[in-house]
Amino acid sequence: MAHCKTSLAAFIFSSSTDQWLAAPSKDLSGLALDKHDLEEMSVAQHYIPKRHYAYGCFYWDWVQFGIKKLLLLDTTNMEFSTADLPPGEWSKQGIAIVEAGEGRLGMFGFHSETSSDLSYTVARNKGESPSQWQMEKTMSLDSGYKYCIRDATQRYFLFTRVEASTSLENRLVVGYFSMDIKTLQLQRVYEKQYYSQYQSYTYINFPPSLLSSRRI
Predict the structure, then answer these.
(1) What range does the domain containing 184 cover?
(2) Which domain of life is it from (predicted)?
(3) pLDDT confidence of residue 209
(4) Is residue 197 part of a domain?
(5) Residue 132 covered by a domain
(6) Does the residue 49 lie in any domain?
(7) Is the separation of the CB atoms in 52 and 152 below 8 Å?
(8) Are 82 and 70 in contact (CB under 8 A)?
């Protein structure tokens, strides 16, 4: 994906032909965004937001910039469009877009920067562009920590927690946790203390020669 000053573009690499294909670019003014959102996206043109994938569509959230919309790219026709986030003030520490089943989107997120209540919201309608959402469940986590959603796969989403009392300069990651999207079962994946500037990434679908079973 390329985010230019006035437009968006997507590029597809084919592993069978080793060639790149450019999808038609989309002018930002044609995405049904208001003036504030367009200004924020223009300011953030150097920044590619977190990507999500569900039901054949890629989604990008702009929560970090106060934009309450999802940008989506339908891979069947390679067209950009937007969809509204569920109502409320969502934390800038990330959201996770997942497949909730029966063709409906699901979203995990926190309602404020200091909240330890994890909300799970599901779109009422089927399809890639949700128009209405309904709250499915709110899960209270330990209030002594701050949380950040890192990534999501088709089965799990991953988040971290850090000590709430630790300064921003020296904040230590206390633990990585996964949640099963279907059962909402929480599991500790990894626990280690180190400085927050080190980033983490999720890899899935390793070749069988590397991992004997499906893992995060």
Answers:
(1) 2-190
(2) Eukaryota
(3) 59
(4) no
(5) yes
(6) yes
(7) yes
(8) yes
How far is residue 78's CA from residue 216's CA, in Å, rounded to a whole number? 29
- Total domains in the fold of the chain: 1
Place of tokens 């089927």: 126
Count of CB atoms situated within 10 Å of the CB of 178: 22
Using the Cα atoms of residue 173, residue 178, residue 179 and residue 181 in order, give the sign of their dihedral. Answer: positive
Are 128 and 58 in contact, with CB atoms under 8 Å apart? no
CA distance to 10, 130, 133, 158, per residue, from 195 (Å): 34, 38, 37, 19
Q: With contact defined as beta carbons under 8 Å apart, do 2 and 56 qualify?
A: no
Long-range contacts made by residues 89-94, C-beta under 8 angstroms, separation at least 24? Answer: 90/63, 91/63, 91/115, 92/63, 92/64, 93/146, 93/147, 93/148, 93/149, 94/50, 94/61, 94/63, 94/148, 94/149, 94/150, 94/159
Q: Across 125-208, where does the E strand assignment appear?
A: 133-140, 145-152, 156-163, 173-180, 186-190
pLDDT per residue as tens digits for the range 138-184: 999 988 888 888 888 878 888 888 877 655 555 566 788 889 988 99
Strand order of the β-sheet with 133-140 is: 95-101, 104-110, 117-123, 133-140
Average pLDDT over all residues of the chain: 78
Is residue 32 one of the residues assigned to a domain? Answer: yes
Total residue length of the chain: 216
Q: What is the mean pLDDT of residues 117-133?
A: 84
How many H helices and E strands in the chain?
1, 17
Poorest-pLDDT segment among 9-18, 36-45, 91-100, 194-203? 194-203
